[in-house]
Amino acid sequence: MDLLAMVGAVVLLILFYQQQERSRLSGKLPLVDMALLSEKRFAIGAILVFLVYSTSSSFFLSFALLIQTGMQINPFVAGSIFAPCSIGFVVASLVTPKFIARWGEKVIVIGAFIYALSIGLLILQVYESGAELIAVLLIPLLSFIGFGQGTIMTPLLNLVLGFVDKKQAGMASGVVSTVQQVGAAFGVAVIGILFSTALSNGGESVDLAIQYSCAFVVGMLYNFFASIIVCFLLFKLVSKRKDIV
Fold it and tell me: pTM surpassing 0.90?
């Protein structure tokens, strides 16, 4: 059933593309001008938005499963442990515009590196701790993950939309908003598959905390590799922007 849904989605996407192209070629105003995606920098930017938002949404899911189900921590305490991640995000959102004004868009690349490194260290910490994991000790890395997200997200949207003409700004904004939602759904789907597969392979005799720690590590590998790709693409995008300027 899942496979049929994926095939159906691809077919609908192809039909949408063809319909929009027919509208453009006939002189009508399409909902999405597909020529917009031929702008290489905007296309790379859309991929970046997709990847960043896929890691963000899936991280919330996998962490909640680890802490609440695996470690049997009640929702209030689990939320309190996660709160520093949100604080880091807010702090980064406030200071990043000032940093960019002073040092340029390379700040976003640094933020992406912090994000990827923090995810990698979190995976390592959970893996090494296993059933002995103390959730409170995750707070420092959670703060850095939130800070990395805050450094990337809003500046990235501004960067990507800066690659299109003003007359296409509304259309480009709609495309980016759609990519955000699709990326978030994709991340949750991937993490869900990896997480559930790891749990089913763990066996019923294994301690619940160990099961969920292993599943968290397996699921978060997607986030880690996706964040590495984000670092590479962001560096490439920012470098190209400097060459043009």
Answer: no
